TrEMBL record:
<dbReference type="Pfam" id="PF08513">
    <property type="entry name" value="LisH"/>
</dbReference>
<dbReference type="InterPro" id="IPR024964">
    <property type="entry name" value="CTLH/CRA"/>
</dbReference>
<dbReference type="InterPro" id="IPR050618">
    <property type="entry name" value="Ubq-SigPath_Reg"/>
</dbReference>
<dbReference type="InterPro" id="IPR006595">
    <property type="entry name" value="CTLH_C"/>
</dbReference>
<feature type="domain" description="CTLH">
    <location>
        <begin position="59"/>
        <end position="116"/>
    </location>
</feature>
<protein>
    <recommendedName>
        <fullName>CTLH domain-containing protein</fullName>
    </recommendedName>
</protein>
<dbReference type="InterPro" id="IPR013144">
    <property type="entry name" value="CRA_dom"/>
</dbReference>
<dbReference type="InterPro" id="IPR006594">
    <property type="entry name" value="LisH"/>
</dbReference>
<dbReference type="Pfam" id="PF10607">
    <property type="entry name" value="CTLH"/>
</dbReference>
Amino acid sequence: ATSKKVITIDEWEKKLSDVKIRKEDMNKLVMNFLVTEGYVDAAEKFRMESGTEHIDLATITDRMAVKKAVQSGNVEDAIEKVNDLNPEILDTNPQLFFHLQQQRLIELIRNGKVEEALEFAQEELAPRGEENQSFLEELERTVALLAFEDVTNCPVGELLDISQRLKTASEVNAAILTSQSHEKDPKLPSLLKMLIWAQNQLDEKAAFPHISNLSTAALEDPPV
């Protein structure tokens, strides 16, 4: 087999220094992450320090209030806040509205409100399930929680995990971002994944300095 070409750190750093990246583009990348993830204070400070274009911080605050409400189990409050932001978000996204209503049902079951949960499922979710098979299956899984006194032995017990709230909150956050003409996912994590992929591809042809620790971006000597 042909030996791999070995590239030293000095050679690699020289190649990297020849790549010109505009500071404005880097600033936009950072701001994109702060806005998408909802870091209001950090976004404002970074805007002032970097001179990045003005952003509407109020929209970030409102979006984070919706996300926090869902994560806290206050789904009714979250729905009201979404409608205050833009009623079309839920009107045009039946799947999102169903998932929010499903989360409301989960919270009722979590709080032991069995009769109220059954009534809510029958009046609010069952009609939607009749129109959509996937909704019906999700409703059946959720109602199955009522059949178990000990949810730790329930096959759908994960619906009561905090991860379910986070999943619903993430879906709402993405929908709001889309309605505001923002990307629903920050670019930075995608670029880091692309970096890892590119390193893996180049591994097949050369031994070169790697970035193993993404938090420090320190170059490591190539394996020889």
